[in-house]
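Before anything else, study the sequence and fold tokens given here and see whether the fold suits the sequence. Record follows:
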Amino acid sequence: MLKLKDKVVLVTGAGRGLGGVIAQAMAREGAQLVLCDIDTQALEHTRSTLEAEGAQCLAVRCDVSDSAAVDAMFEQAAERFGTVDILVNNAAIVPSSAQETERRSRHYAYVTTPMPRQSLGIVSSLTDQDWLKWWGVNMHGVFYCTRAALRLMEPRRSGKIINIASVAGWGAASMHSPGYAATKAGVISLTQTTAFDAAGANIFVNAIACGGVMTPPFEAYLANASEAEKRNLFQMVPLGRLGQPSEYASLAVYLASDEHYLVGQVISPNGGYVI
């Protein structure tokens, strides 16, 4: 039996990478999809791919950092499909600039290579822009979408919300990007508080704290990394590799299904990077 037959699933950041793979996995389990992204070309590619496989899709260009745009998207979803049963908060900005890549490499070398202990000077060198750029999409967007989803789910006393967090939100796993790490910690906290709030309405809120995912930003990093930088990265992961998007998508499908008793949990597929 299909686990999500006739369920309406809204996936943010569905145009490419992990979001696109999650959307495809949901569709294969019988879901109807609302696809959200700011990249129109990527969004249309995901929509056309899923519709060619027989899924019903609504593609909406939406900047999740804009609360009015988020509310309008959920209104469109309700008009098309009647409601939203499952929300996957996947949209996020990730560290990918040249400066962030240099910080990442410096961090990995520091924890895998013998060298004198010293301050890495990362936090003290951040500009206001370095800090503030993460919050609109990574934190506010998750809240805006969660709020809009709950307004549909609470009257029906049914729903699932899956937040895509990160091991960055735990400790110093991603100290090379303090702003990104802080927003992912915020997503974990929002998951837990919302889960407690909504559980009495039979709404299950959980998070996936991803380790390294082989998505386009990480592929680009590896393509330009030296052999030493690659070794430093994989040395930090006991399994010795990054996770494939499909390995995360299967967990998202499980959390979207009616096969579990999980409320407010943060599950972390990460190859042993954080144990």
